[in-house]
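Section 5.1 Outputs to date
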Amino acid sequence: MSLIHPITAAERAAVLTLNNAHAVETSLLDEAKLARMLDEAFLATRIGEVDAFLIVFDEKAEYDSPNFEWFRTRYPSFVYVDRIVTGAQARGKGYARSLYQDLFEKAAARGHERVVCEVNFDPPNPVSDAFHAALGFVDVGRQLLQGSGKTVRYLSKNIPS
């Protein structure tokens, strides 16, 4: 039996709580924005009752993130990891890696050859940097996000289709 399940309406409150506990790394959401994101997602999955979750868009998504737009102007086809969060009690169990492996398989099955994401560069996020490097992501750009004072690194990983 798979550990990974789709995020349904029943888990939305738990996803919102876990996301907002990590808003420095992701960004703060309210119920309405989370609902729109889940409706538009290429993939929205969780492990457990929401010990960890992943929300991903493809290039066709109606999504207004400056990070998503950065990739859309550079790549004709991609899947964009908007957020992946693991709760403190679930760390070290391989959940984030499992969610990514599931994403790689599903993206490849639908003809995608590239998975992209961003990681905070300033303020730094060394744990995420190391995790994404171990999965084979490479640095493809940087951007200072207007109004936030935050700089992000853009990462990409080619996946076999």
